[in-house]
């Protein structure tokens, strides 16, 4: 298999920047913010403790599992520590859950690159199911119902459906009615639901209704999350999974723990200790998340406006730091002027000729003939102290280094269409 598209574009961007190219980094979905100093202090204390060198329990330290359970209880998901398994990031936990389940895997189209890749690593059949307009991360319930019925009739039943709430790559959040319908479909076809909720705390409107499928189908829903997005701890590699209630959850939990015991043994002990404190949601961290949420919303919205002004079809982002513009309306123009006929060719052109790093929709399961791009906006905040200033700015879009990058984007899109 090839290296993950998101990691590959991050490496390529870094190489071109090191070579002196003024690359606009819109490809990699890192949170782009500094770690809160109190988290750094918590990790330092944990690393210095006498117990920090031990492996610890396979499923995670009791304090972390209880803190994560409390995090979910505060979000209307009754959870015991026994339902929680910790791992070195949500990625390996997702893989372990896939490994412990059976049948084909239904994914929203488009969806995060890792889901399909992990299913393929396990030799599982992947069923890409389109989403409803503006409701990324969740398959259209009617199309999922039809896909599950067809797969069952063919003797290759779907066993699992993955949801992303809110969504990467589109930066949107599916509505409660859609979630309810998918839960109904899952019960009708006996599907396990895996709900990736790692961006839950970054919904731009903090009072917007968020419905987890675990509230509707607790007996068949696994929920995963971590601290890489809300607290910018991607490099710390820590995630947690909430197993379903009842016998299915007991079986899945045991099998995920068995995979963990042979693959990663246990997450890093000092990181677990710091993460336990973070999942307790002390005030200074909730304030940091709120500031991050506001920053992501403002900059992602501004980037979406630039793409819309260039003529792309794009839903205004409502969560995290992503958007998903589509230039299909300009297919003839792009083919004639640039010999671009696919999303991959469009992304390559933007990088090679205009120094704008993006990812094509094809990396997320879309047909390559659709001229769609996944845009990540969180690396526009600058470096070092600039990122701290972006967090506290009244309007981060007006900061010179952010404004310059937005203008760089507009200029590139203008040249793409020979408008500037």
Can you describe this structure?
With 420 residues, the chain is α/β, with parallel strands linked by helices. Helix 4 packs across helix 9 (247-263), helix 6 packs parallel to helix 7 (176-189) and helix 11 packs parallel to helix 15. It has 2 domains: 5-30 and 284-416, Alpha-Beta Complex (Aspartate Aminotransferase, domain 1), CATH 3.90.1150; 38-281, Type I PLP-dependent aspartate aminotransferase-like (Major domain) (Aspartate Aminotransferase, domain 2). The model has no long low-confidence stretch (mean pLDDT 95). It is globular. It has 15 helices and 13 strands.
Brief synopsis:
The chain has 420 residues and is of the alpha/beta class. It contains 15 helices and 13 strands.
Poorly predicted spans: none
Structural class: alpha/beta
User: So what's the CATH class of the largest domain?
Assistant: Alpha Beta
SSE succession: HEHHEHEHEEHEHEHEEHHHEHHEEEHH
What is the end-to-end distance?
40 Å
CATH topology of the largest domain: Aspartate Aminotransferase, domain 2
What keywords describe this structure?
alpha/beta; 15 helices; Aspartate Aminotransferase, domain 2; 2 domains; 8-stranded mixed beta sheet; Aspartate Aminotransferase, domain 1; globular; AspAT/PAT-like; PyrdxlP-dep_Trfase_small; 420 residues; PyrdxlP-dep_Trfase; 3-stranded antiparallel beta sheet
């Amino acid at each position: 298999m090839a290296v993950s598209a998101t990691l590959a574009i991050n490496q390529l961007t870094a190489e071109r920047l090191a070579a002196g190219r003024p690359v606009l980094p819109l490809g990699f979905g890192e949170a782009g913010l500094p770690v809160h100093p109190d988290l750094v202090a918590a990790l330092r204390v944990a690393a210095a403790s006498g117990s920090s060198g031990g492996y610890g329990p396979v499923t995670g330290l009791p304090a972390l599992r209880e803190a994560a359970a409390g995090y979910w209880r505060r979000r209307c998901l009754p959870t015991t520590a026994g339902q929680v398994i910790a791992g070195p990031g949500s990625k390996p936990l997702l893989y372990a859950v896939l490994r412990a389940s059976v049948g084909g895997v239904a994914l929203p189209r488009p969806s995060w690159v890792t889901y399909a890749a992990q299913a393929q690593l396990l030799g599982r059949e992947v069923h890409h199911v389109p989403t409803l307009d503006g409701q990324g991360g969740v398959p259209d319930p009617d199309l999922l119902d039809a896909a599950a019925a067809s797969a069952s009739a063919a003797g290759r039943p779907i066993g699992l459906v993955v949801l992303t709430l809110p969504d990467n790559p589109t930066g949107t959040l599916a509505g409660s009615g859609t979630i309810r319908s998918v839960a109904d479909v899952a019960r009708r076809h006996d599907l396990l639901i895996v709900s990736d909720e790692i961006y839950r705390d970054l919904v731009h409107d903090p009072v917007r209704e968020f419905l987890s499928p675990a509230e509707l189908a607790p007996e068949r829903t696994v929920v995963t999350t971590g601290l890489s997005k809300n607290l910018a701890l991607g490099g710390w590699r820590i995630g947690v999974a909430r197993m379903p209630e009842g016998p299915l959850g007991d079986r899945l939990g045991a099998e995920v723990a068995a995979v963990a015991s042979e693959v990663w043994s246990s997450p890093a002990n000092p990181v677990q200790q710091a993460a336990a404190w973070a999942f307790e949601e002390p005030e200074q961290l909730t304030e940091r998340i709120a500031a991050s949420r506001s920053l992501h919303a403002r900059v992602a919205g501004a980037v979406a406006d630039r793409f819309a002004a260039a003529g792309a079809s794009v839903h205004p982002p409502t969560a995290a730091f992503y958007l998903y513009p589509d230039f299909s309306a300009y297919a003839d123009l792009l083919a004639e002027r640039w010999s671009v006929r696919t999303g991959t060719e469009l992304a390559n052109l933007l990088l090679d000729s205009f120094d704008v790093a993006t990812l094509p929709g094809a990396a997320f399961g879309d047909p390559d003939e659709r001229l769609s791009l996944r845009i990540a906006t969180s690396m526009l905040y600058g470096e070092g102290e600039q990122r701290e200033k972006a967090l506290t700015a009244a309007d981060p879009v007006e900061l010179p280094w952010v404004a310059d990058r937005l203008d760089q984007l507009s200029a590139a899109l203008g040249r793409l269409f020979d408008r500037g």
